Hints:
Number of strands: 9
Structural class: alpha/beta
CATH superfamily: Vaccinia Virus protein VP39
Oligomer: single chain
Strand content: 15-25%
Distance between the termini: 26 Å
Bound molecules: S-adenosylmethionine
Number of helices: 10
CATH architecture: 3-Layer(aba) Sandwich
Strand order of the largest sheet: 3-2-1-4-5-9-6
Amino acid sequence: MNMQSSKSAYILGSANAEHDRLMRQGAxxxxxxxxxxxxxxIGPGQRVLDVGCGVGEVTLxxxxxxxxxxxxxxxxxxxxxxxxxxxxxxxxxxxWVQFVEADLASAxxxxxxxxxxxxxxxxxxxxxxxxxxxxxxKVRPGGVLVFQEPSWPSFLAQLTHLxxxxxxxxxxxxxxxxxxxRTDNALGLFHDFQAIGLPPPDMRLEVPLGPxxxxxxxxxxxxxxxxxxxxELGVPSDAIGDFNTLGSxxxxxxYATRSYGAGVGLVGAWARTPVI
Length: 276
Ligand SMILES: C[S@@+](CC[C@H](N)C(=O)[O-])C[C@H]1O[C@@H](n2cnc3c(N)ncnc32)[C@H](O)[C@@H]1O
């Protein structure tokens, strides 16, 4: 793999706390991602590239689907996250995965893959379809590209009875917009696949709702991750009040309204490369 570096900023950063957050979030969202990947045909014996793999949540999930006769390569430009991913794979005894440090804009591979997968990555790329075009060239004819990205409008729609949750979601959307990340991922994905000459993708949307304790906490954790960047991005935070009490006030709002916790919607899309 080529190892050039891109200059684009990544709003969520690479602190240890963010890596830990990715693991908690990954455990919570794994069933939704697994359902998408199974629907897209990811299965035993396949060779899969996981782009923007972070600490390896999706890579390890994919490794379970392809089994020891398959192979999964995770790519990320965060060397510390990759070191953690390698340790996790080692302690799980999953030796059919490999982690490679590379910028997606320049990642290279010799052998075609059966599939390219990615979760929460296209939204951060300045030109998702340019990178997707390069990735599609690494997939064998009849192979599949599968991406899962956040749908913020689906999340907002669940919060109309929760004023503080709504304000926090609006703040996060503003942070992503001002950092250059894409927030309209459903239509964005539909367009991306077609922009690179693939058919209109199969798509699905799943919004996690329910009593899972992490559903109560994830929004506060996401806001703590971006808190140091709010001033620089010019995003006012007065509307959400004191950060020290934000987590408990968000939780309290759920109890006071006897509401479920909600997560960001996950919009998934997949399409196959043409068979020549
Ligand atoms: C939100 S995390 C998602 C990680 C993982 N896919 C998951 O769902 O847990 C996004 C990851 O993309 C990586 N990333 C962002 N831009 C990248 C780029 N241009 N090249 C390689 N990795 C990138 C970040 O380092 C981070 O690990």
